[in-house]
Write a structure and sequence with these properties.
alpha/beta; Rossmann fold; seven-stranded mixed beta sheet; two-stranded antiparallel ribbon; 38% helix
């Protein structure tokens, strides 16, 4: 096995070797750290660094042209995603937030990180917004109200590209409320659950479901 293929197994997922830190990356990381502190102090729910590292790795490996995120909040996970798109020199993120106040805060964070040029923020109920999106979508990250997961997936399935990744957060703590979603992805797609020890005030352990759309 070559070094570039080696994996470091941590916190419920495989994390590949991290890229060299650049000035641009350091700038983004400073904003991520600031947003993380704000979320912890709020509190404002976020995925936390362990899940975020895994999410970023998935984006890095997939090299998506279009990522859709449902649930922006203050932009924490979006910053991790957009940083990978920017580093790859291609791809864009459409992130959806129901709160106009939080959407404005997220926009300010993306701008401060120098990532706004690869991010489009849409304000509204994700179940309605996704109906108006055009595909193909190469990467979908769902992190909003648990009851929304299934209808969002149904509306976007035909817009997902072959080989697209679909990542759902909170499938540990919210499994019962998103049972319809989990039954569908586990029966229709190649899908598996990854668990993480979070060390966050609102939760110590949770999981993400990672599903691959057939080509």
């Amino acid at each position: 096995m070559t070094l570039c293929m080696a994996w470091l197994i941590v916190a419920g997922g495989a994390i590949g070797a991290q890229p060299t830190v650049t000035d641009a990356d350091a700038k983004v990381q400073a904003v991520i750290d600031e947003v993380e502190k704000t979320c912890l102090d709020g509190p404002v729910y976020m995925i936390g660094p362990k899940k975020a590292q895994r999410l970023a790795e998935l984006v890095r490996r997939a090299k998506p042209r279009l990522v859709v995120e449902c649930g922006t909040a203050l932009g924490y996970s979006g910053l991790w995603i957009a940083r990978e798109l920017k580093a790859a020199g291609k791809g864009r993120l459409i992130t959806i937030e129901i709160s106009s106040t939080r959407a404005k805060q997220a926009e300010a964070n993306f701008r401060k990180a120098g990532l706004l040029d690869v991010v489009t923020i849409k304000v509204g109920d994700a179940r309605k917004v996704v109906k108006k999106l055009d595909g193909p979508i190469d990467f979908l990250f769902v992190d909003c109200g648990y009851a929304n997961y299934y209808p969002i997936l149904l509306d976007l399935e035909k817009k997902l590209s072959g080989g697209a990744l679909v990542v759902a957060d909170n499938v540990g703590v919210g499994a019962r409320a998103m049972d319809d979603y989990l039954k569908r992805v586990r029966s229709k797609y190649q899908s598996h659950t990854e668990w993480f020890d979070l060390e966050l005030p609102w939760g110590k352990r949770d999981a993400m479901e990672i599903s691959i759309v057939p080509r």
